[in-house]
Write a structure and sequence with these properties.
Radius of gyration: 16 Å
Strand content: under 5%
Distance between the termini: 18 Å
Number of domains: 1
Keywords: Membrane, Transmembrane, Transmembrane helix
Organism: Nocardioides cremeus
Helix content: over 70%
Protein name: DUF1772 domain-containing protein
Number of helices: 4
Largest sheet: none
Structural class: mainly alpha
């Protein structure tokens, strides 16, 4: 097996891609969406965001799970477990908070509480993505 196809390297690549994606959402996408809360164009903007981001999520999240599972099978060290914890936090925040909140935003519209909940869940996802990428990077460097 070449060094480029080890579970450590694959996880590092996937977590880095996820971090870039997540940072873009946190810094650019969600603030722009939140500014539309209460505006007439909210519904259309939220629907377009949800539709356009779905393919990226459909690629990145399974890649995080599969590369993480591969690392578990291979036997992660301490930094590997840190990376996996970050992945779990990012995926968990999506499953438990962000995705259901998007559903409610689509059905109920942008109440201040729902927008705050989405932004908080997103910051938790970003923190998880940072931890995952840092841990995976340390695994590769070790």
């Amino acid at each position: 097996m070449s060094a480029a196809s080890t579970p450590e390297v694959v996880l590092a690549l996937v977590t880095t891609a996820h971090l870039g994606f997540q940072a873009t959402v946190t810094v650019l996408v969600y603030p722009a969406l939140a500014r539309l809360a209460g505006e007439p164009q909210w519904g259309r903007a939220h629907e377009q965001h949800s539709r356009r981001i779905a393919p990226l999520v459909a690629v990145l999240y399974p890649a995080l799970v599969l590369s993480g599972a591969w690392l578990v099978v291979d036997g992660p060290g301490a930094a590997g477990w840190v990376a996996l914890l970050g992945v779990a936090v990012a995926i968990g925040a999506t499953a438990v908070s962000a995705a259901p909140t998007h559903g409610r935003l689509g059905r109920e519209g942008p109440t201040p509480a729902l927008v705050r909940r989405l932004l908080l869940a997103d910051r938790v996802r970003l923190a998880g993505a940072v931890v995952a990428a840092a841990g995976a990077g340390l695994v590769v460097l070790a």
